[in-house]
TrEMBL record:
Keyword Cell division: no
Region Disordered, annotated ranges: 1-21
Keywords recorded for this protein, A-Z: Apoptosis, Cytoplasm, Membrane, Mitochondrion, Mitochondrion outer membrane
The protein's name in its UniProt record: BH3-interacting domain death agonist
Transmembrane segments: none
Single GO BP term: positive regulation of release of cytochrome c from mitochondria
Short name of one Pfam family: BID
Organism, scientific name: Molothrus ater (Brown-headed cowbird)
Listed GO CC annotations: cytosol; mitochondrial outer membrane
Length: 141
């Protein structure tokens, strides 16, 4: 697992003074990140505070398993997608919504960072793994 960096970059591993970079094209990842950030800025305005507060309550409930929280997050994303313009690719919009929700939850209750981050990564890996792979492949070409 890479360390979380606030500037959007992955941390490097130092070995003999050299930075070890992952075997991906960093420029491709930056292009995708910029596109997703632009969409996220647009979608950010669509998410109401009550939606975020509801998710915060689920994340704070220690009686709920990560699986239950992931299912709830998935339901919220599916409900929010209904308000998104239909000209936007649905999978991309759902991916960005998950990331924007994560940001809003962590901004509301920073102590939830680890649980929210882990749940979001799990959700994205399950729901969007193939889509993300396809998106990276498309930008590389």
């Amino acid at each position: 697992d890479d360390e979380l960096q606030t500037d959007g970059n992955r941390s490097g591993r130092f070995r003999n003074g050299d930075v070890e970079l992952p075997p991906t094209n960093e420029e491709v990842l930056r292009i995708i990140a910029a596109q997703l950030a632009e969409i996220g800025d647009q979608l950010d305005k669509e998410i109401q505070e009550r939606v975020v507060n509801g998710l915060v309550q689920h994340f704070m409930n220690e009686n709920l398993s990560n699986e239950e929280i992931t299912r709830h997050m998935s339901r919220v994303v599916r409900e929010l997608i209904q308000a998104i313009p239909s000209d936007m690719e649905q999978e991309k919009a759902m991916l960005v919504l998950a990331m924007v929700l994560t940001k809003k939850i962590v901004n509301t209750v920073p102590s939830l960072l680890r649980r929210v981050f882990d749940t979001t990564v799990n959700y994205m890996n399950r729901q969007f793994h193939n889509y993300i792979v396809d998106m990276v492949s498309a930008v590389k070409q």
